[in-house]
Amino acid sequence: MTGFEIEEVPYTSGSISAWGKLDERHRNWPVVYTLEGPGKVYVGESLNAAGRLKQHLDAGKKPVRTARVVKDPTFNKSVCLDLESYLIRLFAGDGKYEVLNRNDGVTNADYYGREDYQKSFKEIFDELKDRGAFDRSLQEIQNSDLFKLSPFKALTPEQAIAVEDILTGLFDDLEKEVPSRLVIQGDPGTGKTIVAIYLIKLLSDIQHADLSEPVDGDSLFSEFFVEGHPALLKDFRIGLVVPQQSLRASIQKVFRKTPGLHPSMVLKPFEAAQATPFDLLIVDETHRLNQRASLASGSLNKLFREVNEKLFGKDDLNLTQLDWINEVSRHQIYLLDAAQAVRPADVPREALEQLTATARKAERHYSLTTQMRVQAGSDYVGYIRRVLNGTAVEPQVFPGYDLRFFDDFDEMLTTVEQKDTEVGLARAIAGYAWPWLSKKDPAAFDITIGDRQLRWNSTDVDWINAPGSVLEVGSVHTTQGYDLNIAAVIIGPDLRFDPVTDRIVFDRSNYHDKKGMQNNPQRGITYTDDDILQYVKNAYAVLLTRGVLGTYVYVCDPALREHLRSYLTPHDGKSQRVRSGRSPVP
Length: 586
What we know:
Pfam families: SLFN-g3_helicase (PF09848). By secondary structure, the protein is α/β, with parallel strands linked by helices. It is built from 19 helices and 20 strands.
């Protein structure tokens, strides 16, 4: 559809002026440009490329080694805004450069012919890569944590509304010098983590904004880059609390590559509680904060007591890490989904319900419903939860989504390896139904099903992207908060189906997450099988909602296999078995 060309312009005043005179469209036509220097890149769009490059030069955007202008006789303003956002996201995901742009101008607006133009965007990327602008392929970038967790995401309309309302309320509270507390609630895949990262980057950009520079009127949040707002954020301490180790490390990697952010801003709950008080703490995966329980080690239990004594002057067993966050910050933003709590030590559901109710009453509660991960749509998450909870009335079909039910385990693993070659990020993941023998003995196998022997994830941090992970099995603790293209879920013998009671039941003898069924003697709590069953179901619901392009399912318990078969059918809706000629393996 388009006939684009990319021109490289020497970055000197005389060269830019001479280039501007070569073609009228260099001064009066919508284009996109990049400025690349040592370790840094800036992407912009303009109706007057020569004038805009001259402005950058005069403003001191140096050193710039290469100025590239992408032009096309069919470009219009909407196309250029879209291409600009596309390149910003890819530069951020590639990791070769730090992206100097603010994130408030990243758009996702529709326009006439967008699908055809976006096909040419891939060609533009390929040419820029050939010229050295990118290091990685498009698929490698789009599968990377730097891309998936980037602060340069284009927000959905409901995310944008929430961010705008949150910023308006925050600046109003700062002017009035009053504290605030709000909740963002959403199912898996609705982009809670993205909102948290986007907000922190946007606040950092406002905090350090040079208001003498012209404001882009097309910027989504340009109204916040005004006199007074940077002053309100002077010395404003922001932290992002992430309870899960692996997700925390991945976000720290993103912050390390993002100007205005720093990995030290991403904290464990214990670190946040012991640091200098914060002006704002944003808590991702709030449901994974801890209550007082039998923690991972005696030293952590001792530290829990010490933090309580430091913050509250006493060790009250009812105090949780949620109380810590409230105590050490003036403003809080909690992102949560109570149905993703997977261990008894997680903050009690009642505390999350009270937090949510208070936010609703104060009109500081935001719901995210648009499904950004699973291409089966928003209904899929609720359907999976209903299936596991035994409340699904009839099978549901998700056209275009690669949902497969396997009777042959070996066939599923072979398909996963093929899919990983094709699209990347195809992984086998499972419930904690086998002991982790290979943690102490790397030569040992953890999971044996039929003739296949497998090991649990060989690393706790960023397992999904680790070499050899396609040949291993990840647990909920290495996948919660992440996207996979294909999630091959092994429902282990920790779940069984009781045909007498017609319900899914928990098999304690085949559950090996010690912290997942540990009683809480300090608080006099003993967890029954039914209590733990809900946490195990929650964990499987998390696993079954990781797959962007598809979800594959193998069930170990024969009775449960037959029960789930009609619900987790192939994407064409036919209740058929995926086999390779061998008998099902229990």
